[in-house]
Each structure stands twice: as structure tokens, then as C-alpha cells.
Amino acid sequence: MYLGKSARKNTSAGVNQYLFNGKELNEDLGLNWLDYGARWYDPSIGRWNAVDPLAESYQAWSPYNYTMGNPIKYVDLFGMMSYSYNWDNGTYQDEDGNEVGWNTVHASIQDESDINAYVVNNTSGRLSTKSLLKSFDYASDIYAKNGFDNVQYNLLSEEEAENFNPEWYDVFLRIKYSGDKTEGGYVASTSGIPSKGINRVNYNYFELDNHPNKAYALGYLIAHETLHSIIHQTYYHYTGDYKRYNTDAKTVHRNDTPNLLMDGGALYKNHGGIPKGPSAPGQLHPAERITFDHKFWIMVLSRRNR
Questions:
Q1: Which of these CATH numbers, 3.30.1370.10, 3.40.50.300, 3.40.390.10, 2.130.10.10, describes 115-302?
Q2: How many CB atoms lie within 10 A of CB 269?
Q3: Would 149 disulfide with which of 38, 85, 144, 279, CB 3.0-4.6 Å?
């Protein structure tokens, strides 16, 4: 019997696929593995089916261990690292019982690679280069305030973009001007296969018209669409599963809490739309926040093996 089987069968709302640590059970081929993101976990033997991507941080332990052999005291949310979790106040703690936050988790990830976003201005002169570069600064700042200072924006000319052949780990954005003010951004695809992460941002999006800081608002949209591309491309590269990305609400948009990847309608309805401008230095507006499950994909892309 695998862990959580009885709880799964006794739910009044139907079959519960999300079991230990809230991870989804995959019953394909009768394996009954839990999907942690970085690795698959086999609860029947209490082991991973692959080595820990952060195994160098736990050299005294087998790279296949789960929570250093102590799942009562420790949790490992993504198959990468273990911290003690305080269920009373919802905080993580190190081995000495000290509370640790995202910066501590992020600092444990060494040798990050830059994430390069290449952007072409296709607005037919409606958006100046100076204004777009200012929006780049706002977009980069949103990532930096979330703990990622390795997201870099690069401007391409229209001629350069014509011959641009991005790698799978590059983000490629086009700033377009659409007659449809409700059109935001979207990931282009061909026959269900991602077409090298081409993503679009509409410079005529209705929220930009009367925004008090249009450069910031555009930067916010660029950061939003960049996050879509990062998750989309990384998920597909490592799993080959394009369909699941487009049907998983937490990877397409997440509307249950204020965050950078809320869809435009939910953001406008529940939080008044795009923030009116950047927060004070070092402070993060709730709608700029990148959730931990989305940060995971930035972490994976940052540590990619090219």
C-alpha cells in the first residue's frame, strides 16, 4: 500500500490525486509515484527515482534520500532540499531551529546562469526605445525583489529579430500594438508544440491607457509574460509534456492569491489592476510576488546544464 491510499479513496468530492505534501499521484504503468517537480518520489520505498539536483549541499547523505531520513521533522517540497517546517506559524527552520526565508533557500543555489529575455519592439514607432528600456528596468526590478537578479532584458532590432534563433532557455518577447485592447500576451504554438517561447505583449492593452506610470505598467506586463515563458519552456524541456502545462491552472495563471501570474481579469477585479507604480526600494507589492511553486521553475532554469 502506498502512502495516502486510504485518504485518497475516502474523499466526498471524488478521487483525490494530491496526497503526501500535496503532491499529485501519477498512476501510469502502476508506478504510483508522486510528482515533486524536480524529481519523482516513490512513497512505497521512501526514495526518489533520481539524484538530488542539490546533492552537493548534503554530501553526508545519499543523493536518493528523502528529508535526510526524517519525514516527521523535515519537508522537501520540490525534491531539492530539506528544511524543518513549523506547522503552527507556516515558517521554515534550519537544523538549529532558526527561521529561514526565501533568501536562505535561494542562497543555497550556487552557480546560477543568467536568464536572457530578448525583446523586439514591433509597435511601429508608438513606443520609444528610451521608454522600453525604462520598462526593462522595472521588469528586472520585480524579479530582483523576488530574489532573482539574474533575469536580463536585451533589446533586438526588427532586423535582428528576423534572424533570431533563440535557445530553449532564452525568452523571446515581441511588443505588439493590437487593435484589440483586451488582448494581453500569449504563448504562440504550432500543433501543440511550443514555438521557441515566442510571447507577445500588447502595447495597446486597456490597462496601459490611463495608468499613472505607463513605463512601470508595461514593465509589469513584460515581467508577467516572461514568467509564462520561463515556466512554459522549462516545463516542456524537462518533461516533454506540453498539454499538461496548458491545462494546469497553477502554471497558466494562479488566481487564488495576489501574485505576478494572476490573469488580467482576476487582477483587475480583485486588486484594482496593475499596481500604480513600483513599491519603495526593497519592498514587494503583493501583485509583484512570485509564488514559491513558480519560483521553482526559475530556479531550475537558472541551474540548467547547457
A1: 3.40.390.10
A2: 12
A3: 144
pLDDT digits (tens, 9 = 90+) for 191-212: 334 444 467 888 888 888 889 9
Which string of b and e fits 28-49 if b means at least 16 CB within 10 Å? eeeebbbbbbbbbbbbeeeebe
**The three cell numbers locating residue 153:** 532584458
User: 52 exposed, middle or buried (CB, 10 Å; 0-12, 13-18, 19+)?
Assistant: buried
Dihedrals phi, psi of 240, to nearest 5 degrees: 70, 10
Q: What is the rounded distance in angstroms from the CA atom of residue 2 to the CA atom of residue 146? A: 37
Strands 91-93, 193-202: parallel, antiparallel or unpaired by DSSP? unpaired
Name the grid cell of 99: 527561521
Q: Where in the chain is the domain with CATH 3.40.390.10?
A: 115-302
| Residue 18 φ then ψ, to 5° | -105, 110
Return d(Cα 26, Cα 203) in angstroms, integer. 41
Residue 110's pLDDT is what? Answer: 45
- Name the DSSP class of 47: E
Model-wide pTM > 0.70: no
Question: Is the separation of the CB atoms in 172 and 198 below 8 Å?
Answer: yes
Cα–Cα distance measured from residue 107 to residue 35, given in angstroms and rounded to the nearest whole number = 25
